[in-house]
Write a structure and sequence with these properties.
103 residues, three-stranded antiparallel sheet
Length: 103
């Protein structure tokens, strides 16, 4: 959505035309990028010198009406380097459907 979502990459690879077109697409679809909590970037080069916010959670106004306090939590990359969890502080989903037992 903006050049500041990428660090440590060659400026030639950050095409402002692509950024504008992507933002136009988001606007045409009437989508919103919900706030992120945790790490700013969702992808890191293994050497740690480059990072980007590649992954996004885009939602509709209807979604925000239903779950107005939705946030995307960017998790550590222990399992995958693309891990985002969406949470809402208002909605009570009840008991979790699965449980694990240590044997």
């Amino acid at each position: 959505m903006c050049a500041s979502e990428r660090e440590g990459v060659n400026n030639e690879t950050t095409n402002s035309t692509d950024i504008v077109r992507f933002n136009e697409f988001i606007e045409r679809c009437d989508l919103r990028d919900i706030p992120e909590v945790g790490r700013k970037f969702t992808w890191y080069r293994p050497n740690g010198k480059s990072r980007s916010r590649l992954d996004k959670v885009l939602v509709s106004d209807e979604w925000l009406t239903q779950w107005p306090d939705s946030k995307q939590f960017v998790q550590s990359r222990q399992v995958s380097d693309h891990t985002i969890i969406v949470k809402n502080s208002i909605k009570d989903w009840g008991q979790k459907p699965f449980q694990t037992f240590d044997v």
